[in-house]
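Tutorial handout. Part one gives the primary structure; part two gives the three-dimensional structure as tokens.
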Amino acid sequence: MKGIASSIVMVALSGAGAQALPLRYHDLGDRVLAKNGHALSARFEEEAARDRTGHFLRSVLPRLELQYGAEQFRTGYFPVLSQPVGAARLTLNLFKGGTDRLEDSIRERQLQISGSEARSAEMEELTKARRAFWSIVYLTEMERVLSTARSMNSESLGHAKRKHSAGIGTETDLLDFRIQETNLDQDLSRVRIERRILERELNALIGEAVDAELIIDERLPHEHEEPLLRETAELTGHRDVVALRAREDSADLRSSIEKRWWLPRIDVFGVTELYSFRERSFTTLRDRTDLAFGLKLTLQVFDGGGALSESSASGHEREAWFQKKGQSLREIEAEYAGARDRLRLTHGLIDGAEENVKLAERYLKSSLSEYLRGLKNSPDLIGANLRFQDARRRLLELKKDYQLAKADLLRILGN
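Part two.
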């Protein structure tokens, strides 16, 4: 109980003293591979499959079994005796119908499956981390946009107060700016909460304490020349297709094993056994010791049709995996084409959005100047501010969508 209590205290203290964690985009891969439980679990499963390979080499090695003991007994009119017993058996398989090589090939296919599944798990977790990362960056930049809009609104409210005091402004102008101030405060609160929720999700994905504070000092980037759009991928080597192809091969190999049920098994063996006087009525150890060498052939004449049934079942499983492989490849090709289209679309829209931000900023400056000269009223100025805010938000959304589309494309490619 004392040890458990100490552990609880240590966990509590470590959580209470959690420090802010700097995080960069290019560190995500290492963080996920090193500390994400799903990625680590998949790699351990891959290592387990690797440990099972080498079956053929192990199958040709001899098997040695040693036994030793003692027994106390009474037989016939003899007094109670205590004597040692034991045995040593050595067997070596010479032929098993070629099934050992086939089993070895099946285990190699299982390693391919586990490796492909490990890469899939790593890419799924990394993609979730990338999407969360860029969404956090987006919300951080949106907070700056809203904070700037609130400052501009406060400045406009100050202008409205001065105009109202001078008798050239209206009460509705003040109310308009105050309502807009409340709306912006609400938007800021929403953005901050959403960012904190995503930070917790990202912490979980990179294996950190859920409530750890992340320091992310990056902006949403946009490359004017996107290399991914110039590359083409050979999707027949996609990890999911490789896994399904390995499953198809495994079923075919399993069918071949079952078809060999009738082939003989040939073993050589050597054995020495020490019996007690109870089993061998001789007084000396030498007379109670047996020694034998031999060759044994085992031939299964009839198994009730079980092997042929299993062989047929494995053949149908092979066809099932073949069909699934073809369908999965078509779906991956469609997903890849869609991801490229989304990336190309957002890539092309960003330039226009950047130009719109410049135009909206000019429109806002002109509207403010005209408002101060009495040519425009508060709804006009609020509308100009909202237009500028919306242009900046739309640009950020496009940049975020660009990074999310890129993350999806990288997931398909396994990068």
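Part three, for discussion. The first helix runs from residue 2 to 16. Strands lie at 21-22, 63-73, 81-95, 214-215, 265-274, 289-298.
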